[in-house]
Amino acid sequence: MSYPYDPNQPPNYGQGGYGQPYGAYVGGPPPGPEPDNNLVWAILTTVLCCLPLGIVAIVKSTSVSKLWAAGDFAGAQKAADDAKKWAMWGAIAGVVGSILIVVAYVLFFVVLFGTAATTSTY
Question: Does residue 24 form part of some domain?
Answer without folding.
Answer: no
